[in-house]
Design goal:
Layout lengths: L2 E5 L4 H12 L5 E4 L6 H7 L7 E4 L2 E4 L3 H7 L1
Parallel strand pairs: 1-2
Antiparallel strand pairs: 1-3, 3-4
Length: 73
């Protein structure tokens, strides 16, 4: 199971998401939308305007969602 997090620097909800994933022992890849070409467009294509956007296979959500993170563990 690959977990990708679309993020940007100084994002409070992003940091909370990393901490929750770390606490569950889950590995993830962070994609900085300010540094990665096309990442912003990918987030918008999924229908989101708020970060973080977490993508796990076909499933995705926006914002800090401890309930969804718990379900992954």
């Amino acid at each position: 199971m690959e977990i990708q997090i679309y993020s940007k620097p100084a994002c409070v909800q992003c940091t909370a998401t990393y901490r929750a994933l770390d606490k569950q022992g889950l590995e993830y890849t962070v994609i900085d939308i300010t540094a990665e070409t096309g990442a912003q467009a990918e987030v918008e294509a999924l229908g989101y305007r708020q970060l973080p956007v977490v993508v796990v296979g076909e499933e995705h959500w926006s914002g800090f969602r401890p309930d969804r993170i718990q379900a992954l563990a």
